[in-house]
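USER:
Class, as today's exercise, take the chain set out below, and explain how the chain folds.
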Amino acid sequence: MINRQRLAGEFLRLVQIDSPSKQEGAIAQYVRKIFESLGAEVIEDKAGPFIGSESGNLIVRIPGTRRDLLPLMFNAHLDTVEPGKGIKVIQEDETFRSDGRTILGADDKSGIAILIEAVRYLQENKTAHCPLEFVFTVCEEIGLFGAKSLDYNLLQARMGYALDTSSITRIINGAPEANSLCIKVQGLAAHAGLEPEKGINAIQIAGEALATVQLGRIDHETTANIGLVRGGTARNIIPDYIELEGEVRSHDRRKLADHTEHIRGCFERAVLAYKEKHIPPFEKGGRGGILKGGDFQGKRTADDNLPAWHMEVVTEYPLMTVDGSHPVVVLAQEAGKILGRQLTPEKSGGGSDANIFNAHGIATVILGTGMQSVHSTNEYIHLEDMVQTVQLIMEIISTYSRS
């Protein structure tokens, strides 16, 4: 039997250890001590200094009685989003939630607690099992930086499970590829009341572009968003600069490329339209010269190359696609059937460490822990969901070990 109270106690201890991204030192030290006390080998890689975190990723190796089998890999991340400091847990029967001032941290402390309980169960019941590799990553929440910087030479597993979603009845076997976008528009500052004609309003140009950009759910596979805008210096100054950050996600690489290009085209056309409307024909002169025609005296000449724009595109994480017939999916479904559960493969709209593991040749799908309303102060989790996830993990290990 799974020790419910021990699992609950471990979860409560974990969520009360502050671990915002890049500040995972205390939680990493705690997790290391737990697994070392259980006889596991714990290795910290060198990712920490590289990505600016207090800790590197932790790789936990647990020897198996079936040494002829490759290890199974399980993953959870150590960091949490903000507000995540000074978490105080409200327990109502077997439901845990925050007091409303912070997140709860079930994302992803529930995954860590589940894996700790699984190892304790294995040891107490002297259960025969395959070798295991647990990977606890840092800086997942701010860009999957831990998984991206992981030393994959430290792993032997070729398939595994990331414990990092909500539903305990789903297997996430598909996740989108994502492009992050940084768009910069350069205009020309001028006094908004005295000589606005001399200015080029970068915010106006960006607004014209955004009015033509398709955002939100583009189709069943693709989404787009602009989420950050920075620009302007004062209300009486024509803004000469604006910077926008956004993203495009898609389960189809062609659609990802096409919609990224759509956004690029919207900004290019907005800049060209501004030039056509506001910069008349002229005789080329030096910077700050006077255009021909009295109506245009004092305006800048077009060889100033303004307005200008630039869009930087970075692939945040690669496409994740694991076929429904892959052994990593079939194994989880078989384990579920033994427990009387039906696990359904589904696609997700978000990226996770699993995207990166798959890109490095470790077939990885995502299992749920029961975490709900994550990344909010309404986050909660039911103990029963964590118990059922421990049971599933144990059955996955047992079924694989009998193969």
Q: What stands out?
A: The two ends are 23 Å apart (CA to CA). The domain at 4-175+319-401 is CATH 3.40.630.10 (Aminopeptidase).
